[in-house]
Amino acid sequence: MNRRFPWLLALLALPALPAPARAQDELGLGKMWTFERPPLAYLQREYGFQPAEQWWNRVRLASLRFGRGCSASFVSPQGLILTNHHCVRDAIAQVQGDNDWVRDGFVAADLAGEVRVPGLTVQQLVKTTDVTAAVTAGIAADAGAEAAEQQRAVNRERLLAEAKAREPGLEPQLVKLFQGAVWQLYQYRVFDDVRLVMAPHLQVSHFGGDPDNFVYPRYAIDFAFCRAWVDGKPADTAAFHFPWSDGPAEGELVFLTGNPGGTQRLLTRAQLEYQRDARYPRVREQIDNRIAILRRFAAQGPELEKRLRTVILGLENGQKLYRGEHGALLDPAFMGRKQAAETAFQARAKGAGHGGELVIWEQLAQLMVRKKALEAPLNFHTAGGLPLLLRALAVVEHGETGAAKAAQTARDVDCKVDPVQVAFYADHWLRARARLPQGDPVLAAALGGREPEAAAKWLVETSRLGDSKVLEGLLQGGSAAIAASQDPALVLARALGKAMAEHRAAAAAIDAAETQLGARLANLLFAVYGNDVTPDATFTLRISDGRVAGYPYNGTLAPWRTVFHGLFARHAEFDGAHPFDLPEPWLLAKDRIDMRAAVDFVCTVDSTGGNSGSPVIDKQARLVGLLFDGNVESFANEFLYGERVERSICVHPQAIVEALRKVYRAERLLREIAR
Per-residue DSSP letters for 381-443? Predict the structure, then answer.
């Protein structure tokens, strides 16, 4: 018997829509399919491929969410995990001690030498349940947006508690899809004993540095191995891991599985204009300024450089990403494409008898006016990340509410003065001064007539709230003692706390209205285009299809794969100058390496941030690649998916094998992945 998903018959029975009615194409929604709604009919139509239920289950269980922002996969029967080097840099820095494993690489000689990373987990999705009806239960048809959101919040809290009580061994997560039109309960097995097994040199994984970031042809070998342990021994993953392969062929159908962090393809043009005019300029300025601050500190000495290195690398990645995405929104031609997609959707909705719902677009546009006005107060009337002020806010809250949780939060904040955090805080108010209206009372309270840098220095030097004895005295004294204190951090926290509460309430009202309108828009999408559509990314498990293919660029052609000849040539062409320098062990291994072996390749799978470390597999569910980046042309895919020249960039398995065998002599790992 050919086992299929039970809802497929109903899906296939849906009436065909006039071409070109596929929302993926007309609206640029992309191919980030969820596992509970796999695109069975689509895969059959596009590729003649009919994977059985067993295939889907195995692929889902072999795919992992790694830490707080990446993806990974099991690649051996003994819990071996493959992900990107840039996904484990912070973990390596955490456990390397006096060594510099981030820079110089690390190879565990045996199981006993594998190093546990405290706090690092991987999550395996084992169960999904549609809970849309339960999340929206009790909401009257005429309920206002805020009342509806309050009821949803009550329902969500109950559902999570019930799921945890019913299956305490699984970690539940409620996933909002299609802007709230669909809700899923995802339940995860969490592996909380994760150990570092192998990582290459930073300069090999990050070859080309910032200049080559988000570009192709590329020569970065961005990989690392960890291992999940259970009860003091390697996890048994014999039933669900991806066997190793020699890599894909040009034109081959491949799949990407992983946890894309977020896309904005279902947003309207008005919502994207808010992003363009308000959010992106603020975030870009913050990233730019923080990179400049960190570079100044890093230049003071090697120890500071070592401590700040991974933070700088992460921010540089974000800097280029936000610059590219913002550039797409600033491009009139791109916004014209978005408008054309929106017009097509509206025309189809009107033609299908849903003309009354076209008001959604205007209502969202009006809502964005309020959201833009709130952008600066909401984001600048804050503690600016300064621990001293975070403690002060918690103390004020405890004084006003008596909440024991607030008192504990105040105790938990580490108020040791960190010059980097103080510099970030000063920059926060420097940027706030340029964006808040003249005479803003919170800004005046924060600066006290001083320049931002002087105000930051004055606050940390004059406040005594960082002293644990002073803190305990205030907490023990209760609301009267806290209200009477004129400690400068508490004085500022009182002004901040009031403003923050007001802004959060306003933001919650806007978010509730946006959710309500977004859900209506998604239901209209289903009514017009059917169910063969994908939601925006939510850092939850997805699968995407594509083909291995090069593309035209700069008046020439980008090859579907690069080889080691190019890696060493790039080193030579730049005379070994950073960031195109290869580590000494790699230069010494040059004569041993197969120069024709592939390094990286590109394909048309749909990816975004969060997919870093995602496995690329073939129809036999064998590992054929490791995603680590997208090209600059793919930046616009955040808002509208395309694949003419937009590509995902992946490490080729041959590059990993060459590195393990010819440079790192990691025979133990080679034997394990060859099983």
Answer: SS-TT-HHHHHHHHHHHHHHH--HHHHHHHHHS-----HHHHHHHHHHHHHHHHHSPTT-HHH
Q: Pick from 284, 265, 226: which is nearest to 92 by CA? A: 226
Q: Whole-model pTM? A: 0.91
- Beta strand extents in 495-583 (DSSP E only): 542-547, 551-553, 556-558, 561-563
In a domain, 388, yes or no: yes
Cα–Cα distance list, 372 to 30, 379, 459, 642, 651 (Å):
28, 11, 31, 29, 40
**pLDDT of 2 higher than 60:** no
Residue 162 lies in a domain: no
Instruction: Note whether 550 and 458 are same-domain residues.
Output: no
Alpha carbon distance, N-terminus to C-terminus of the chain: 31
d(CA 40, CA 3): 12
Do 215 and 312 fall within a single domain? no
Query: Which of 533, 561, 595 lies at the terminal end of a domain, its last residue?
Result: 533
Cis peptide bond N-terminal to 559, omega within 30: no
Cβ contacts of 635 within 8 Å, gap of 6 or more: 214, 321, 324, 325, 327, 328
Lowest average pLDDT, out of 153-157, 410-414, 452-456, 532-536, goes to 532-536
CB-based contact 490:392 (threshold 8 Å)? yes
Which residues span the domain enclosing 358? Answer: 267-533
- Contact in structure between 247 and 654 (CB atoms under 8 Å): yes
Same domain, 214 and 358: no
Say if residue 580 is in the same domain as residue 528. no
With a cut of 90, say whether residue 141 has pLDDT above it.
no
CATH code for the domain in which residue 217 is found: 2.40.10.120
d(CA 570, CA 554): 18
Residue 567, H or E segment: helix 564-573
Q: Which of 131, 82, 364 has its CA nearest to residue 243?
A: 82
The whole-number pLDDT of residue 224 equals: 98
Q: Tokens 């960082």 belong to which residue?
A: 466
pLDDT at residue number 593: 98
What is the β-pairing status of strands 253-258 and 115-116? unpaired
Pairing verdict, β 648-651 and 122-130: unpaired
Cα separation values, 560 from 219, 566, 600, Å = 13, 13, 9
Is residue 170 within 8 Å of 189, Cβ to Cβ?
yes
Query: Comparing C-alpha atoms, which of 465, 471, 515 is closest to residue 489?
Result: 465
Please, which residues bridge with residue 264 across strands? none
- Whether residue 457 sits in one domain with residue 490: yes
Residue written as token pair 């030097």: 461
Which candidate, 202, 9, 200, 205, places its Cα nearest to that of 107?
200
Mutual orientation of helices 359-380 and 488-529 as an angle, nearest 10°? 160
* Degrees to nearest 5, angle at CA 511 with 510 and 514: 85
Do 401 and 284 fall within a single domain? Answer: yes
Tokens standing for residue 477: 């004294």
Q: Note whether 365 and 371 are within 8 A (CB).
A: no
Do 486 and 346 share a structural domain?
yes
Integer Cα distance of 103 and 93 in angstroms: 10
CA atoms of 277 and 89, how far apart (whole Å): 33
Residue 72 lies inside a defined structural domain of this protein: yes
Looking at the structure of the chain, the number of domains it has is: 2
Both tokens of 311, joined, read 């933070």
Determine the Cα–Cα distance for residues 148 and 513; give it in Å rounded to an integer.
Answer: 9
Q: Which of 498, 533, 568 is the last residue of a domain?
A: 533
> Domain for residue 284, yes or no?
yes
- 547 shares a domain with 411: no
Residue 177 to residue 32: CA distance in whole angstroms = 12
